Amino acid sequence: MLLAAHLERLERARAGGGEHDDAVLPLVRRDRQPADAAEGEDAADARPGSIKVETLLANPRAHEASARFLDDDLNRQFIHGGRPNGGYEAERAKEIEAAIGPKGSSIAADMVIDLHTTTANMGTTIIVNSYCHLALRAAAYLTQEWDTCEADGEATPASTHPLHVYLHDITHEAAPYLCSVGKAGITIEVGPTPQGLLRADAVGATERALHLLLRFLELDASGQAPATPATLPVYVDGGKVPWPAGSGSLSSRLPGALVAPSLQDRDFQPLRVGEPMFVTPGGGVIKYDGAKGDVVYPIFVNEAAYYLAQSGSAGVALTTRVEWPVNQR
Ligand SMILES: [Zn+2]
Question: What is the pTM of this model?
Answer without folding.
Answer: 0.86
